[in-house]
Amino acid sequence: MSDIEKKPIKITETILRDAHQSLIATRMPTEKMLPILDKLDKVGYHSLECWGGATFDASLRFLKEDPWERLRKIRDGVKNTKLQMLFRGQNILGYRPYADDVVEYFVQKSIANGIDIIRIFDCLNDLRNLQAAVDATIKEKKQSGKGHAQVALSYTLGDAYTLDYWMDTAKKIEEMGADSICIKDMAGLLVPYKAQELITAMKKSTKLPIQLHTHYTSGVASMTYLKAVEAGVDVIDTAISPFALGTSQPATEVMVETFKGTPYDTGFDQNLLAEIADYFRPYREECIESGLLSTKVLGVNIKTLLYQVPGGMLSNMVSQLKEQNAEDKYEEVLKEIPRVRKDLGEPPLVTPSSQIVGTQAVFNVLMGERYKMATKETKAVLRGEYGQTVKPMSEEVINKVIPGEKRITCRPADLIPNELHTLEDEMKQYKQQDEDVLSYALFPQVATDFFKYREAQQTKVDVTAADTANGAYPV
Q: Which of 66, 208, 234, 374 could lock 378 by a disulfide, CB 3.0 to 4.6 Å apart?
């Protein structure tokens, strides 16, 4: 085989972030990661996804860990492989849009603490909500030579999402100055031949490398990767087998074996991958025994393809209906979801837009009248607080839900004044490192609780001295 034909497929390993986020609610502690870093570093991965997404919140809230400390420890243990994170555009890793100065500082600190590739997405695919994060990454790259801005497009189906839409958006991303593009198929909606068509089209409209990220939820992900690789995709996201499949990614070893002896051969050592899998297998068993890993998430959820609704959104909806003793309304709500989505400008269904559309659909059905009651999030979407949707929103619904209210047409963050100094003032009594300000900015209450806990650990407060009124943490 001549060199000309060779195009080894690059792989991003998700075991340290999305694999455990998808299967065990992001509960893998840093201690579990450190002993295996050396082996992960030897594989030859394109990158290790290890930070961002829900890891930040879960570390502080449930594991009583400093997420910045985790990143530094991983960076210490990984000498040769790029580290990657997921970043929610103007929302960073939190649940509201932040001022540009916070976004810029967060990017700067992420790179300084060891992140190489920042994958940036927006739940509406509104590129204006990504610009500040992309610019900050480019600026950092100019100054320190480190940093790679990858813009992720939330993949979705609907009238608005034609091949022309994806091609045009890819062009715009290139013009923004991004380093690469990711197609982020969070719901497992991208089927094999559509993937082939999509990658072929996007390769025509951009010179940027294209990465594909999907989930096994609907059962087609491995085949989707196969067709995408044949169509020329540059990188795919996989998870080492004990934490693969189900709502996670296709298994790394399976994809490596698939392309063996072809022009796409990764050259990875299966024995080394087997050692990594052996390391995680007992932890998987432990998670199943404790109930942390529910076998429910390991099967194929074909409803995802039938209703084009992400798995998490379906389970959310079922529990909302259960609470109201209205489980018989399931089918009705499923029919209402696409209608609400259309009313709101056909956004991709990904956090938080999926929850907003789902909850509103439940209300519409239970109230017996559409938009008799609208959630504050629905109102915010209609006002334009989340950004611009691909299609216009329903005028009729706007007039019913927010009659006469002023709507935002600019980039929402243009209306948020700089807030870094204010945040710093609010939390300065707890500050032990610059990064603490950012933890506080994203999760004020959770971070404050963590800071108090950290202080208690450091000062070795004894139980009798614990200040229970203020929720201090004795050791």
A: 374
Residue 189, C-beta contacts closer than 8 angstroms, at least 6 positions apart: 155, 156, 157, 218, 304, 305, 308
Average pLDDT over residues 463-468: 52
60: alpha, beta or left, given left = phi > 0 and alpha = psi -120 to 50?
Answer: alpha
Backbone angles phi, psi at 338, to 5 degrees: -60, -30
CA dihedral of residues 372, 377, 380, 381 (deg, nearest 10): -90
Q: In this predicted model, what pLDDT tens digit does every residue of 74-133 receive, in sequence order?
A: 999 999 999 999 999 999 999 889 999 999 999 999 999 999 999 999 999 999 999 999
| CA dist list (Å): 410 to 58, 106, 416 | 33, 23, 12
Tokens of 264: 């796409």
Lowest mean pLDDT among 175-189, 296-310, 317-331: 296-310
Report the C-alpha gap between 19 and 26 in whole angstroms.
Answer: 8
Q: Identify any residues that bridge with 215 across adjacent strands, giving them in sequence order.
A: none
**pLDDT-derived band at 473, boundaries 50, 70, 90:** very low
Q: Which two tokens stand for residue 163?
A: 């091949």
